[in-house]
Amino acid sequence: MSRHEGRRDGLMNGRVRAALLVAVVIGAFVEVGTPHRQYGPFVDVFALAAVGVVGAAAVLGSESVATLARQRDRLEQEAQSATTAPICRYVTGTVAPQPRSQPQPPRPRPILRERPTDLSVPRFGDGARAQGYPWLLPERTVQNGIAADEATVGAFAIRAASVIGPGHRCARPAEPRQDSYRIGRSRDSRYAIVAVADGLSSAAWSDAGATTASSQAVTLLREQVETRGFGGLDGKELYGRIAESVAAHAAGRGVATSQVATVLITAVLAEPDANGVAEAWVAWLGDSSAWTLDPRLPLWRTSAGDTKDRAATVVSNEVAGQLPDTPQLARDHYVSLAPGAALALVTDGIGDAWADPAGDVNAYFANAWRSPVPATRFTADVGFDAPQCLDDRTAVVVWNGGRA
Question: Which of 121, 123, 197, 361 has the most neighbouring CB atoms within 10 Å?
Answer without folding.
Answer: 197
